[in-house]
Amino acid sequence: MQTAKHSKSTKADILDSALDIVREAGALSLTIDAVAERSGFSKGGVLYNFPTKDALIAAMVQRLADRFAEEIETARASHMRSKSPTLAAMVDVTEIWLRENKSIARAILVTHMKSPNLIDSFMALKKRLKDAIRAEHPDFSEALAIWCSLEGLHFADAHGVMLHTDDERTGIFANLRRRLSLT
């Protein structure tokens, strides 16, 4: 059992190192050698856990999808009186991720262009979120408009074409929250 626990810890350490590289230096800086150096594992140790760069990237995307889902679930609890607790949580989490994970969004974009199947875990998460929002929100078209606003902010940021100031972005998120309130 200790080996399985150690293996999970090793994989987590490698993934954290890979995400740090992308966050700090961009997706093009992600190499097996860079991950080995950053994580303190040998190149062979990294390749043992992730036999290819694509396997590493797929695991990174899965880890991000899991983290995003966990953060939404946590934030959801504070929005139970909203038109859609799930969508209200997505507003909160997206605002935080846009502030803290800019390089990660760009990396996912680069990954999708190179190998579209590597983002399957994020697409599966988005389908689950869409189903939850459809079940919660009384006007699904309004919910989709709010979600599209979040996606637009995310993609503008990922493409490096965000024109809104921090104050404008804060106002946008406040408007989206008002649209989801029951009052």
From TrEMBL:
Single GO molecular function: DNA-binding transcription factor activity
Record bears the keyword Protease: no
Domain HTH tetR-type as annotated: residue spans: 8-68
Record-annotated DNA-binding residue ranges: 31-50
Protein's name in the database: TetR family transcriptional regulator
SUPFAM superfamilies listed in its UniProt record: Homeodomain-like
Transmembrane portions of the chain: none
Keyword annotations: DNA-binding, Transcription, Transcription regulation
Domain of life according to the entry: Bacteria
